[in-house]
Amino acid sequence: MDEVNQVSRRKFLKNSTGAALALSVPYFVPQSAFGANDRVRVAVLGVNGRGKNHISGFSALKNVEVATLCDPDNTVLQTRAKEFKDKTGKTVKTEMDLRKVYDDKSIDAVSIATPNHWHALAMIWACQAGKDVYVEKPGSHHFEEGRKMIEAQQKYKRVVQHGVQLRSSAAMQEAVKHLRDGLIGKVYMARGLVYKWRPDIGDKGVSKVPAGLDYDLWTGPAEMKPFSENYVHYNWHWHWNYGNGDIGNQGIHETDLCMWGLGVDTFPEKITSAGGKFLWDDAKETPELLSSTYIYPKEKKIIEFEVRPWMTNLEDGAGIGNIFYGSEGYMVIKGYDYYETFLGRDRKPGPSRKAGGDHYKNFIDAVVAGDPSMVNGPVETIHLSSGLAHLGNIAYRVGRSLTFDPAKEKFVGDTEADGLLARKYRNPFSIPDKV
């Protein structure tokens, strides 16, 4: 990547106006970019959960053709293909193996909505195949994958959008600009909130692989374990082999906004996490409740993060969102598209706004323009927002406060914690040392 793009990306991460400009500045598209009708052919990888939103989101764009659906569970895949035809009247191509999608030269871009453990490898392979990439959050499943994903984007110069869709919200862009402009004074703390309803999932034990599922392909780069309905198709989120708990699920939106709003573009030096399972005696491995603290001593800033699974109060009406604290007031973020501010000791209501955006359109606009810098959720957010969640999970798993070196991206004097920064991949589903 040339130096100009490097600088513009760093500025983007620290300045909300970068995102606003990406939505408002006109650009010129070469007429030959995607043929006579300028249609971008997209393949959606992983169509059981979040992938359904990807299908509908890209289908709604006039210059996009959802050309292929891909999933290692053929039962789910054919169900989704039938739904697609019923809704659109069109027959969509189906593939179980994403490598066949990458071999298809007619596919311009892939949208990755697989389980977390596939995200990094799927994105890197896509870049190597010359595809642009929209990848769901968390972009990485392990900390060190984020750096590899940045390297792949820079080497192959592909458009990569991280699925932190609040970056495309006009209200969130405005909110971050207020933080930059000093509306609430010196902003010293961000609080991330993930209060989700997460019930008992039981423990279904080991069973036969169901018909239609290629379990080897579903497992991919992860360690092969005996099949269990505890994993497939949603509850993999709560197992370290595939997911990252709720801080690495819903929480990536909030870790991203914490860092964006505070204006920090590096990792904290001090990390503390505590929590556990207090409600359900079920198959989940990740904590139901998790409280994490991230300290930036040089910047004099702090991030607090709270995951709660069940009955709870809200914080000024926010249960999924963020709160920013400043010397002159505070700001409450509710969901992805609404903020309120409260100023002074008497909490006088300040500016507020509710407005969304289209993260899929932002990605396609960048693809058509051939300009990676146009995306609102650039590849750097994969490493930063996902990485913050990974650091909190590692502190929880080792059971102690940790000191981290942001320059070396290693823990200080802690080989056990360092061992959790990466994973051992299962051949042939391995991320190469050099992408």
Automatic annotation (TrEMBL):
PROSITE patterns: TAT (PS51318)
Domain Gfo/Idh/MocA-like oxidoreductase N-terminal: 40-163
Segments forming domain Gfo/Idh/MocA-like oxidoreductase bacterial type C-terminal: 205-270, 381-430
GO molecular function: nucleotide binding
SUPFAM superfamilies reported for this sequence: Glyceraldehyde-3-phosphate dehydrogenase-like, C-terminal domain, NAD(P)-binding Rossmann-fold domains
Pfam name, any one: GFO_IDH_MocA_C2
NCBIfam families: TAT_signal_seq (TIGR01409)
Protein name: Secreted protein
